[in-house]
Design a protein that fits this description.
By secondary structure, this protein is α+β, with helices and mostly antiparallel strands. The chain has a domain of 123 residues: Small protein B (Small Protein B, Chain: A). Helices cover 43% and strands 30% of the residues. It is built from 5 helices and 9 strands; from the N terminus they run αβαβαβββββαββα. Strands 1-8-9-2-7-5-4 form a 7-stranded antiparallel β-sheet. Strands 3-6 form a two-stranded antiparallel ribbon. Strand 8 and strand 9 form a beta hairpin.
Length: 183
């Protein structure tokens, strides 16, 4: 009888140990549900965004490692079409400190966008004939691939920006009025 009691105590001890180990393992690595790497918050403020597209980005190995750490900036970047290819310019991907010493890391290099020929022709027609700009909106992970979302855009004038600010402030004020009138 004494042996059975000893076995039960040791089994419960190991079960509790395993549970605490599993709990600590789950707490240390929270799942990131947001796959966004970088956003261009100024894009919607400075441009009228019309038609949106998605493209893959051609990257080097050190860039992928840096993007996993979230070291990217697309705030001042734009997309340029040349020789029926789309290029991402002025986007900055900062290299990691522990990057390979045999690879020359250029944080502001031109990065090729992977688009279909039909999409490139469509963009080329809009940019050359109708005076649109192509502005990146966000960079994100889609499964194991880095994608960039961009839009055809036209620049806003100062009065357009002021009108947007007034409209946004009116929405906030209207919500406050509705909230207080319900009480």
């Amino acid at each position: 009888m004494g042996i059975d009691k000893l076995n039960v105590i040791s089994i419960t001890y190991y079960i509790k140990k395993a549970q605490t180990f599993i709990m600590s393992k789950n707490k240390s690595k929270p799942k990131n549900k947001n796959n966004t790497i970088a956003r261009n918050k100024r894009a919607s403020h400075e441009y009228h965004l019309e038609e949106r597209f998605e493209a893959g980005v051609e990257l080097q190995g050190w860039e992928v490692k840096s993007l996993r750490e979230g070291k990217a900036n697309i705030a001042d970047s734009y997309i340029f079409l040349k020789n029926n290819e789309a290029w991402l310019l002025n986007s900055t991907i900062h290299p990691l400190i522990a990057a390979s010493s045999h690879v020359v890391c250029d944080p502001v290099r031109y990065r090729k966008l992977l688009l279909k020929r039909r999409e490139i022709n469509h963009l080329l027609g809009k940019v050359e004939r109708q005076g649109y700009s192509i502005i990146p909106i966000s960079m994100y992970w889609k499964k194991a691939w880095v994608k960039i979302s961009f839009a055809l855009a036209k620049g806003k004038k100062d009065h357009d920006k002021r009108a947007d600010i007034k409209e946004r402030e009116w929405k906030v004020q209207k919500e406050r009025m509705m909230k207080h009138s319900v009480r």
